[in-house]
Amino acid sequence: MRRRLLVVLVPLAVLLVAALGVPHSVTLAEREMQETYVDRLGDVGRFASLAETALSTGRTEALQQELTRYHDLYGIPAAVIDTSGTVLLGPAAAYQEAARAEPALPRIVTAALAGTRSEPSGEWVPWDASALVVAEPVGRDSEVVGAVVTISDLSKTRSRVLLQWAQLAALGLLPLIALVAVAWPVSAWVLRPVRELDAASSRISQGDLTIRADAEAGPVELRRLAGSFNTMMDAVENAVQRQRAFVSDASHQLRNPLTSLRLAVETLEPHLAGGGRQVYEVAVDEVKAMQRLLNSLQASARMESIRTTSPVDLDAVLATRVDRWRALTATAGQTLAVQVPPGLRVLEPTGGLGSILDELVSNALRLSEARVVEVSARVAAGSGVTADSRVGADGVVVIAVRDDGQGLDEAERAQALRRFWRSPRHQNVPGTGLGLAICADLVGAAGGELRLEEGLPRPDGSGHGFAAVVALPVAPQEPGD
């Protein structure tokens, strides 16, 4: 965030420096050009007046010597040319060599021979390598007999202008450096509480309701915001704790009376006769269902009170479960297929990944009337990792429990993750309707997702079974792996 602030401040400072320095720099370059042009214009004007007299009298030796000394002293070729462009006086070789490098020379000389004084170019800039060509007609009006031309190398002028521009740029950078020097610690002071508040919000989104923001650092406005944030989190944490405590306490307090009720009902069995036995069996089944419900509520309250994740090897989890799953499926006359590549490492939800997989496999065995139950795992496509290596924290491992049983239609799957929901086909099957809902909450708290999909094709071709798919983040790679 500090970087974003600097991204705004630095361009503003650069614009300020440019606004202050560029006009002055441009004026400086124009002034240097004007001074150079005026000097050359004075020189060619003087030479033109001398050339007019010398050409009319035929006494050209003195002018020739002066033009030669001018070139030797200043390094500027100055020549008198006739109307055909032939050099009459001056250093002819130096003039012709310089003239070959100046494409604008013919235009300027033509204008001078027509009796027009040349004008300086308004497009001159220090990085332009062209010379300054100044021409003055010799004679007047229709009596122009030639022109005096100077070709001035401006490299020294360019060097002076560029040096002055560099000095101005250096001076212009001083306010920019000062601004950055002030903005850096100020932005750190302002944005540090914002970063801490962002980190606290991230921790809270992962289920840690104990985190609080620092309400003693930063500007007054941010301290007030952090204080309000902490007050809000206190209220949220207290409400969640009261809710969990109520569920746990209510389940615990109801357990003893319910146990006593069950014992009392069961003691009636020897005294029952006729149709009373059927009522007795219904009552016992209802009491057992209520006990299972209370056990599930207590387990849910206990597990939701802890919102931490830890890395775990999927191989290790399956090693403690697969044998028991195979025994259960064999007893029920079903087949278990496990297709999990080695080396997968995930962030384990609260309560353990094994417990979640137990619940999903149990549902497939009890509720689906399936012949085949399949447990598979893979790394999600596009994560940039492979299934046979330890992977970084940028991937997702997808674990699926599929069967070829009755399954659920799309409308039922949309409701199956709600608490206490049960399919009408399963009303006489023992259960509370909490298993999938609790698993979905735990997987979501670990940064993953539990979704329900179509399962394996049924053997009779009448449709598909049921599939519970768990997507969990890949665990960070441990040092030394």
TrEMBL record:
- Which parts of the sequence belong to the HAMP domain? 188-241
Pfam families in UniProt: HAMP, HATPase_c, HisKA
Q: InterPro entries this protein is in?
A: HAMP_dom (IPR003660), HATPase_C_sf (IPR036890), HATPase_dom (IPR003594), His_kinase_dom (IPR005467), HisK_dim/P_dom (IPR003661), HisK_dim/P_sf (IPR036097), Sig_transdc_His_kin-like_C (IPR004358), TCS_sensor_his_kinase (IPR050428)
Q: Name one GO molecular function term.
A: kinase activity
What is the annotated localization of this protein?
Cell membrane
The record, for CDD domains, names: HAMP, HATPase, HisKA
Q: Indicate yes or no for the key word DNA damage.
A: no
| Keywords, ordered alphabetically | Kinase, Membrane, Phosphoprotein, Transferase, Transmembrane, Transmembrane helix, Two-component regulatory system
- Organism, per UniProt? Nonomuraea monospora
Annotated Histidine kinase domain residues: 249-476
Name used for this protein in its record? histidine kinase
| Reaction(s) catalysed (UniProt annotation) | ATP + protein L-histidine = ADP + protein N-phospho-L-histidine
